[in-house]
Amino acid sequence: MERRTLGNTGMSASVLGFGGSEIGYGRVPEPEVAQILGAALDAGLNVIDTAECYLDSEEKIGATVSHRRGEFLLFTKVGHAEGYGPKEDWSAPGIAWSIERSLKRLRTDRLDLVQLHSCDLEILRRNDFECVRALEEAKRQGKTRFIGYSGDGATALAAIRTGRFDVLQTSVNVADQQVLDAVLPEAAARGMGVIAKRPIANAAWLKASVPEGDYSRPYWERLRELSYPWLSGPAREAVAKALRFTLSQPGVHTAIVGTSKPGRWQENAALLGAGLLPTGEIEAIRARWREVAKPEWVGQT
Length: 301
Description:
The chain is α/β, with parallel strands linked by helices. It is 42% helix and 16% strand. It is globular.
């Protein structure tokens, strides 16, 4: 598995990471999580990204692979200590408490990256950047090596411009390309590590009808209009092309894909065997986006 250095952090990350939301929200039994993660680590995975609000994702990761802690980079997020919803807590005490809880859940004494989890611009700037200072204090105390912002659009750009974050996690995929012109160049200019989330656009094109109540719906709608010819081909070939497109973008260092199925991470890793997407294919996808994309097609959190 190819590794790339996450910007100025110096962390060497597998280009395909593991996202922990599905093992939490999908209520995957712990024995299956042990199988999923153990086999993926054996196959070259070294990035595990989760969040305090993904139900019991942190606990499952801690229970199943904490004994292999030296083999992987461990990332989590803060801001939704009581679950993703109305009870957000961006205060310094709340963030400090959340980090301590994550350390206990993950059964580790250190995190490699703690990220603000999709807070808006007003929250980012509130009380003289209180939430950012809370992460900086955790870094000073050695509880995390680096700090980051996970989010999209104008707030992601504002976070980059503070000059205070080491890493940006943001949506990058064939249905979410505004970031390529508006955000990633500034992150690269500052030497930030970049984690691509939703790198295959949730494979939304595989759903036969509009996914009601599903956060992949905007991508489903966009892809219907973009109508890339290759989306109608074999599913695995289309997933491979979408993933390779994301990882071919300048400044992207790793792509996070979640799964609830044993062996799926290895299947996705195998799709990258062909390397970067050829320039002509990248340009065709970019040209179609420029032709069809609407101004409101902004980054999807």
